Amino acid sequence: MSWRWLDLVDGSFRTWPAAPERPTPRSLRVDARAVEPGGPATWVSWCRFEGEESLAFDDGAVTAALRRVVAGRWPVAVTTALVDWSRIAGALTLGTSRRDVEDDPFARVFPRTILEVPSGSLGTIPAPTGPALTRYGSGNPWPWDRYAGQVA
User: Fold this and answer.
1) Which runs of consecutive H residues, i.e. helices, occur in the chain?
2) Residues linked to residue 135 through DSSP beta bridges, in sequence order
């Protein structure tokens, strides 16, 4: 999975290429597919703690939000927003209508802002096909959209 840094600056999303250092104090790691231009999304639920607050990725509230996301109707894209490979500070949910993002499960965990963005400015992430809650190392979430090989 490839990733990028994301931050909301003056009401607009800014992205930076993957790099070891955070480009801004508030930037977070997200799945690069969510911020690639060309998707149909026009509404965004940006859930994010203020300041440096974060949770362990395996925190019960985060796990419950992930389960609600995969159990519901899949929007255009969902990505967690990480401080580092084991700490989460928010999530980004993209939809084609405001209704698609109003019931974002991550809004129960993190403060939320709903924004309308121009169509084509953000990307898409297909619905998960595998165990989205399983990790094989703190920096390696199981790929949601594919399996690299057969599991014995």
Assistant:
1) 60-71, 98-102
2) 141
Q: Are 82 and 25 in contact (CB under 8 A)?
A: no
Q: What is the extent of the structural domain holding 107?
A: 33-116
Are 62 and 55 a contacting pair, CB within 8 Å? yes
Task: Residue 92: name the closest of 33, 19, 34 by CA.
Answer: 34
Number of domains in the chain: 1
Alpha-carbon torsion (126, 16, 107, 11), positive or negative: negative
Q: What are the structure tokens assigned to 55, written together?
A: 């949770």
Burial classification of residue 105, based on how many CB atoms lie within 10 Å of its CB (0-12 exposed, 13-18 middle, 19 or more buried): buried
Q: Percentage of residues in the chain with pLDDT exceeding 90?
A: 64
Q: Encode pLDDT of 101-151 as tens digits.
A: 999 999 999 999 999 999 899 999 998 775 555 555 555 555 555 555 544
| Location of structure tokens 């924004």 | 115
